[in-house]
Amino acid sequence: MDFKLTSLERKGDVFVITLKKPPENRLDVEACQELIRAYRHVEKELGQDADGAVILRGSDAKFFTTGLDLHERDRNPFASSDGFYPLLATVLDFPFPTIALITGHVFGGACLLTLAHDYRVMNSQRGYWQMPPVNAGLHHDGMGSLPRTKLAPHVCRKVLLEAKKYKGPEALEDGIVDAIAPPERMFDVALELANRWKSKAKMGVYGVLRNELVGEATRAYQSNSYVHHRETSKEPKVKL
């Protein structure tokens, strides 16, 4: 497949999707839809009841992705419904283990994208992880579903109500990420995770069992996807 804003490579049973939308890998409809195509292509290539996993990463050690392109909503008020929500639903529904390699800064909705993955590896030396909707006046239906299913209650409070800005070691301590590593080692750590757990997809129930854990979030983003007859979000008062 031809990709413009991402690249896709295969390492055995593990596929690696790299974000390539400089300078900050902002998620607009085009980028989200290309990512959806990449995940579906991986699913098709691996086939049913097979070993496999996927890693999503940034292209450098400065940015993973700094979140949604909020200015796109000035042109398309349904941008999130056409791109971001379907992307989250796709990752949550993916039948193979997923790893987010947080190579650098990640903000806002991109934090939800990392939480939609099964495992998270973060740069230990550079980059912040922060969800600032409380500072921007931003909300969408189901925004709390992923933090609530993935994080401890006191961490959810820090993330959503305090907009805490996490560095790698703090994110590891609070259980937001599963591992941290320096830039020269972080891909190897993500690949080790992928290879360790890729066989869990072979019996064909990996996605079903995941849904037992995160079904609330999956249903929330599926129900918000491609919806144009109603508003699914509160527009931000400040565009960060």
Structure keywords:
single chain, 240 residues, alpha/beta, 3-stranded parallel beta sheet
- What is the count of helical runs? 9
Instruction: Tally the beta strands.
Output: 11
| General form | globular
Kindly report the average pLDDT value: 96
Radius of gyration: 16 Å
Helix content: 40-55%
Order of helices and strands: EEHEEHEEHEEHEHHHEHHE
The strand order across the widest sheet is 1-2-3-5-7-10
Strand content: 15-25%
Q: Specify the oligomeric state.
A: single chain
Structural class: alpha/beta
What is the first-to-last residue Cα distance? 33 Å
Poorly predicted ranges (pLDDT <50, ≥5 residues)? none
Largest sheet: 6 strands, mixed
Structure commentary:
The chain has 240 residues and is of the alpha/beta class. The chain is built from nine helices and eleven strands. The chain is globular and about 45 Å long. The termini are far apart. The model has no long low-confidence stretch (mean pLDDT 96).
